[in-house]
Amino acid sequence: MASGHDIKTSQATYNGFIKAATWGTGFCILVTAFVVGLIAS
């Protein structure tokens, strides 16, 4: 069974991944909106 330290490390890794995925999604939305704006003009 995992010790408390392993769980804390895993939670930190998971939280970092979720934060990166959130920022990455926002960045992709902005880039997509920019490209659509370029194409539409």
Describe this structure in words.
It comes from Novosphingobium mangrovi. This is Aa3-type cytochrome c oxidase subunit IV. Keywords: Membrane, Transmembrane, Transmembrane helix. The chain crosses the membrane at residues 20-40. It contains one helix and no strands. It is 90% helix and 0% strand. The termini are far apart. It is mainly alpha-helical. The mean pLDDT is 91.
Task: Give a short overview.
With 41 residues, the chain is mostly helical.
**Percent of residues in helical segments?**
over 70%
What's the helix count?
Answer: 1
Q: What value does the Rg take, in angstroms? A: 18 Å
| Estimated structural class | mainly alpha
Mean pLDDT: 91
Task: Give the ordered list of helices and strands.
Answer: H
Number of strands: 0
Proportion in β-strands: under 5%
Report the uncertain regions: none
First-residue to last-residue Cα separation: 59 Å
- Net shape: rod-shaped
- Biggest sheet layout: none
Organism: Novosphingobium mangrovi
Transmembrane segments: 20-40
InterPro entries: Cyt-C_aa3_sf, Cyt_c_oxidase_su4_bac-aa3
Protein name: Aa3-type cytochrome c oxidase subunit IV
Q: What labels would you give this structure?
A:
41 residues, mainly alpha, 1 helix, 0% strand, rod-shaped, transmembrane
